[in-house]
């Protein structure tokens, strides 16, 4: 605790990070917004996506129903239900499928969101059990699903698999995996939090991708710039049951119009920009890879991005890389990398890069190379200072 401000060291570090990024003139990714800026953006976007003369939503009607209809239309599925969080949406989906199949076992990757980011909620709240077709950091293959040594009722596929580096299978691999699940009499649920940006990789429209599965979850803030919220889409009967469980889980909120309006704006404005972000991510990644070549043991994963997000790995402790990035943002007004973390190997750190936002076209290959060179100079300076 810092006595001067009453804040912890971590809180002060967070304030410094936000100030550095907000003060930067060129950012790789999205700039943090103040409450006033976010409210102003919502007010500017909302009139084009919904009639603001309509009453506010009450317990899921009105603008919330408009979001549900739009998602079902975009995915080519019969119905959709708005949820306050993706965690709730997916737990409800898996719970409903377990009831229908009579099998409480869910096959999924150990790096999937329910296993890594939900504090064991799937088993604690639903009584479901998980099994893993593979531990390799990629989506499972058809043979791995086919050869899993116990029955399962649902196969959950996260597209892309974020914690493995935003990786995707090929279209042929994906369809084969779905067919393998069908052979096992299992249903297929897609964790499509970032499904919106996968169309280019698969070379297929959203309805064809979503149509492979029995249900699909999508997020409104991870790629679309929304405030919060998610949707679960699928057959009418499943969605109606999901709404019942949504109420039981406490997700039947009195009003959700800010999140719903932001979701509609993201679907209208940001979704069409995603293919451009994905294409430019390949330009940025190549420039990063070339510029980081001077750093031993550096790595991009995947080397050619499959979406507009990917990982960068460098052989330094996270605190060194964090400090170098902050100094770069503060001193040059260029913000290249965000937070770094240690993936279990001492002295090796990774970060996630998102190629998106209004600054994206300013990140030419030459601009990336210049920024990386400047960043590495600061890394060397910080590392030497830490060594005394």
From TrEMBL:
SUPFAM superfamilies (UniProt xref): PLP-dependent transferases
Acetylation as UniProt keyword: no
The keyword Endoplasmic reticulum is assigned to this record: no
Record keywords: Lyase, Pyridoxal phosphate
Superkingdom, taxonomy of origin: Bacteria
GO molecular function, one term: lyase activity
InterPro entries for the chain: ArAA_b-elim_lyase/Thr_aldolase, PyrdxlP-dep_Trfase, PyrdxlP-dep_Trfase_major, PyrdxlP-dep_Trfase_small
Pfam families the record matches: Beta_elim_lyase (PF01212)
Cofactor: pyridoxal 5'-phosphate
Aromatic amino acid beta-eliminating lyase/threonine aldolase domain sequence ranges: 63-291
Family as reported in the entry's similarity comment: Belongs to the threonine aldolase family.
The protein, known as: Beta-eliminating lyase-related protein
Source organism: Streptomyces humicola
